[in-house]
Amino acid sequence: MADQATILLVDDTRTNIQLLAGCLKSQYRLKIAMGGQRCIELAQNPPLPDLILLDVIMPEMDGYQVCRQLKANPITKHIPIIFVTGRDSDEDEEFGLQLGAVDYITKPIRPAIVTARVSTQIQLKHQSDELRNMALHDQLTQLYNRHFLIESANNKLAHVERHGNELSVMMIDIDYFKHVNDEYGHHAGDEVLKGIAEVFKQNSRKEDVVARFGGEEFVILLEHCPLDFAMEKAELLRAKIEALKPSGITITASFGVAQLMEHELTFVDLLSRADAAVYKAKDQGRNQVVAAEVDVIGLELEKKIV
């Protein structure tokens, strides 16, 4: 995997960049920044770096300032940073590590040391990414899990408060799923869940958060999406699920859709109304999309989340 890793080299001296690039270009993809601000820009642009080699002494914005900003940004905070600098005192190294750097390489650059330490950090980054992915995803469907959904929802609510974006949520419950497990077995039930998850993946935008909420329940969080558009999308997904027939089994789902209202302060409030709409869809015969009532606040869902 090392040959697929991306490393961002940051130094205001071209000779130093050339020396580092000469050590690493045969094994890694390289991105180059000649200053701190450019480093911050490139670190947020795909492909995100797997590692940043960061000079300390630079004009306008030094490496310590750059490190602080990268570690404060949710997009870049998990990217490991190795300081590369002529400052070689114990105090300088300690300060750099306290800021969040994972290693400290002193100049003049020694190619064998650079390649060895970079290789170690790339391996650790891949292991860390794998563990983080497992912690945030449902292992059966590979959708996001409830923990990530709630964390993302809180972030999106903050965006809505600042920018006034529309935020809608779908709650989906597979109809008669217990009957599927009882009649066809749990393996068939797992195939049904994976097939439905694939429908959601193929019909979602990059900014949508699609999560398995638990059991046969799914939640899709849609920013920049008013209720009427969310209803249209829910109907599209409902029809695709009905036509899916995973393992030859006819499956339908009931959808509850809600848009965040001005008086709603928490994700629980929003999701409670979507949950109430799901129950209404089931009461009305299942396999349908129902918009949430504005004044419905379901208290039981808060217990489920906690």
Automatic annotation (TrEMBL):
List the catalytic activities from the record: 2 GTP = 3',3'-c-di-GMP + 2 diphosphate
- Please give the Pfam families that the UniProt record associates with this protein: GGDEF (PF00990), Response_reg (PF00072)
Q: Which residues carry this modification: 4-aspartylphosphate?
A: 55
Keywords linked to the UniProt accession = Nucleotidyltransferase, Phosphoprotein, Transferase
Q: Which InterPro entries match?
A: CheY-like_superfamily (IPR011006), Diguanylate_Cyclase (IPR050469), GGDEF_dom (IPR000160), Nucleotide_cyclase (IPR029787), Rev_trsase/Diguanyl_cyclase (IPR043128), Sig_transdc_resp-reg_receiver (IPR001789)
Keyword hit for Ion transport: no
Q: What class of enzyme is it?
A: transferase
Any one Gene Ontology MF annotation carried by this entry is: diguanylate cyclase activity
Could you say which EC number(s) this protein's record lists? 2.7.7.65
Domain (GGDEF): give its ranges.
Answer: 165-294
| PROSITE patterns, alphabetized | GGDEF, RESPONSE_REGULATORY
- NCBIfam families per the UniProt record, alphabetical: GGDEF
The record's annotation in PANTHER family points to:
DIGUANYLATE CYCLASE DGCM-RELATED (PTHR45138:SF9), REGULATORY COMPONENTS OF SENSORY TRANSDUCTION SYSTEM (PTHR45138)
Protein name as catalogued: diguanylate cyclase
Q: Which organism is it from?
A: Shewanella eurypsychrophilus
